[in-house]
Amino acid sequence: MAFANLGLIHHLRVALVFIYGVVSTPLCQNLSGKCQMPFQNLFGTATMVANYNYRLAWEMFSEFDKQLDQGKNFISKVLNSCHTESITTPDNKEAEHTQDEILIRLVLSLLLSWDEPLHHVVTELQGIKDASPDLLSKAAEIEEKTKVLLEGAEQIQTKIHPEDQEKETSYPVWSEISLTAGDEDVRQTAFYKMFHCLHRDAIKIDIYL
Questions:
Q1: Mean pLDDT for the chain?
Q2: Do the beta carbons of residue 50 and residue 114 sit within 8 Å?
Q3: Plot region of 69 (φ>0 → left; ψ -120 to 50 → alpha; else → beta)
Q4: HSE on the CB side for 73, CA within 13 Å?
Q5: 81, 73, 179, 154 alpha-carbon torsion, rounded to 10°
Q6: Distance from first CA to last CA of the chain, Å, rounded?
Q7: CB contact at 8 A, 124 and 195
Q8: pTM, rounded to two decimals
Q9: Whole-number Å distance between alpha carbons of 45 and 41
Q10: Is the per-residue pLDDT at 25 higher than 60?
Q11: CA-CA distance, 99 to 172, in Å (whole number)?
Q12: Between the N and C ends of the chain, which has fewer C-beta atoms within 10 Å?
């Protein structure tokens, strides 16, 4: 499968090297400048990156939860408040019987809906003095891999359902401003909600792929 975006190939290769330590076969085999990746390789790589992202999201949420000492009961404040709540998604069992074109559209909607908020999370974490370097590193890595995964999901959709290529994918727009709130409790609740929602949606993306 030909890719116009060589940066995607590079990032996918980096993801494979990072996760598994080695790439068994070259991803770019054409010296003319066009990269080719068989669909099976593309799909397999996308699922690996999605699974890795979900694990990173869980680690990031757990680390932030520990920093708050789990004593402020934030979970009761953030349940059912994710900005992606309007996306109707099947549960695990329902997903097994859902058409693949529907699942890939859901994956694209979820990934697109996290593009802007992840950028803001990374930006705001950089300005927090007591934010651990590990937390910031995980957030930045999730942001990068989400972009890679989005491009990969778009290529998968193009391959299996080319008729959907020209259709615009709808997704909820993030409008949270509490990450920059002056009130510490409000700001911490906003971050807690972001990490909770990110982990929830990362699981869905992993399952649907």
A1: 78
A2: no
A3: left
A4: 1
A5: -50
A6: 19
A7: no
A8: 0.78
A9: 6
A10: no
A11: 22
A12: N
Helices (H), the chain: 6-20, 39-67, 75-78, 92-96, 100-113, 115-126, 133-160, 184-208
Residue listed under structure tokens 């669909």: 39
Residues 6+ apart with CB under 8 A from 120: 174, 176, 179
* Percent of the chain topping pLDDT 90: 30
Domain residue ranges of the chain, discontinuous segments joined by +: 2-208
Contacts of 91 (CB under 8 A, 6+ apart): none
Above 90 in pLDDT, residue 202? yes
How confident is the model over 147-170, as pLDDT tens digits?
A: 989 988 888 888 887 776 667 788
In sequence order, what DSSP letters do the residues of 77-130 get, joined into one string?
HHTT--TTTTS----HHHHHTS-HHHHHHHHHHHHHHTHHHHHHHHHHHHT-TT
The CATH fold assigned to 2-208 is Growth Hormone; Chain: A; (1.20.1250)
108's tokens: 């694209």
- Backbone phi, psi, residue 93, to 5°: -70, -40
